Structures are given as structure tokens and as C-alpha cells.
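This section describes the prediction task in plain terms. A model, or a person checking by hand, is given the sequence of a single protein chain and must write out its three-dimensional structure as a string of C-alpha cells. No templates, partner chains or ligands are provided. The sample shown here is typical of the held-out split.
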Amino acid sequence: MIVKNLEVSEIILTKVNSKSGEMELTIKFTNDSPLIMNAKIDEEFESIINKIIKTVKTSKVPKDDDQDGILGGITIVNLKNEEELKEKLPKRFIMLDNRLNILNKTKTANEYMKLFSQVSTMQEILYQKNNTL
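The expected answer:
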């Protein structure tokens, strides 16, 4: 049996498409290589967060080199700060959704282009691990 413990240090929004609602996230870990994933901005923010957690757990499964016959095929990926992610990420997704709604409701061309430029070039930290000891 293989157990891998991960801790998310940062989740960064690197790209967002205001028309399709697609976003690209870079997920950084304290003890592993970063992961880049795509997700669709949805009204159900809990489903986005669950998709992020599921993607992390499935993509970071360690290679099975355990020769134990009974427990050899079992791998477990633990996220140390999973509850903290579920608590903090919805607030950041609500803020992002509000920005996109403001952009879509803008009527004047100058204001729209200004907001569109801000949204299309934005790189925002959605989650950052607290370094309190």
C-alpha cells in the first residue's frame, strides 16, 4: 500500500476566458511539482472545488512499485489542507464570477474594453497556504 501526502501551497488563476467561462489554474504544492488544470466557471462553486480536489488526487497518484500481493494495488493520496480549500475557495470564485458578470453587463465600448483587458490578462492567487506555525 502506498500513501502519498500532499499539501497545496497556492492555487493561481493563470487564464480566464470571459465568453466560454473556461479558466486555467496552476496548483502548486509544498512537496511536489505543480499541476496545471482547466475548469469551467460554474454557478455551483462546490462542484469546481470538488473537481480540483479529484483532479489533484488522481493525477498525483504515485507509481505502483509495491510488490505486496494483497495491498500492492492500493494507493492513497491525502491532501492535508483539503478542508481549508473547501472553506476559502468559494469566496474567491464568487469574486471572480462577479467580475465576469460586471464585464458581461457593461454597455459602453470603452469601459468594456478596459474591463476585458483586465480580465484577459489577470493572474490572481485564489488560494495561498497560511504559514502560521
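For orientation: The chain has one domain: 2-128.
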